[in-house]
Amino acid sequence: MIVKHPDFPENPKRAIEGAFAEAENTFLDYAEGQAASPEMGGCGQVDRSGSCAVIALIVGDMCYLANVGDSRAIMSADGGDKILLLSRDHKPEAPDETKRIEENGGRIYQNSNYIPDITPQGKGTMHLIVGPHRVFPGRLSVSRTIGDIEAKEPKYGGNPRVVVPTPDIKCFKIRNNYDFIILACDGVFEKLNNQEVVKNAWDASLVKG
User: Fold this and answer.
1) Span 70-92, pLDDT tens digits
2) N or C, which terminus of the chain has less Cβ within 10 Å?
3) For residue 108, is it within any domain?
4) Which has more pLDDT, 39 or 22?
5) Residue 167 buriedness (CB in 10 A; 0-12 / 13-18 / 19+)
């Protein structure tokens, strides 16, 4: 969708913005189409799924980095001595995202529950477990996505201005001391911090010699 956009390659940023919007519309059209009966090509139930996205586009000596949601891009530089964060996670508790969500009619909440301690030392006591921050409508732990029709389509209780598909886009000139970029989903960064991810990449390669 990016390379087929009319603004590519003259204006990569605008091409990326247009492609993300096209991806969103295509995803939601498909989700809606699934509500049709099997005879009409659907499954009789709207597709409620959604996705985060992170992409790196290289045009000449320029890199364009875009993300929606909490997939992340980090870069190794100077042989791994420097680690550069290229994206920001779109979490509902981030101050600017909270402000945007609340100004557009959404709200942020956290679920909590007390559970019993079953260890011998703590038996009989209760622990308060607090869940992640979530957005309503949608009940999602990210504030920007592609898809998630129930969060966005008013007839399903959604609000298209709350959980949005708008990417953050950064661009920079590629320099000789830049090693590589890692693009990964939150499943990686929930287990490893940025430094550990880059170290594992170096350890798994022969690049460092």
Assistant:
1) 999 999 999 999 999 999 999 99
2) C
3) no
4) 22
5) buried
pTM: 0.88
Give the CATH number of the domain where residue 59 resides: 3.60.40.10
Q: How far apart are CA 71 and CA 186, in angstroms?
A: 5
- 134's CB contacts (< 8 A; 6+ apart) are 92, 108, 109, 110, 111, 140, 141
Instruction: Return the CA Rg of the chain.
Output: 21
Could you identify the residue written with the tokens 């980095």?
65
Q: For the chain, give the number of residues.
A: 209
Residue 92 belongs to some domain of the structure: yes
- Cα 29 to Cα 1, 36, 38, 42, 74: the distances in Å are 16, 12, 16, 12, 32
Domain count of the fold of the chain: 1
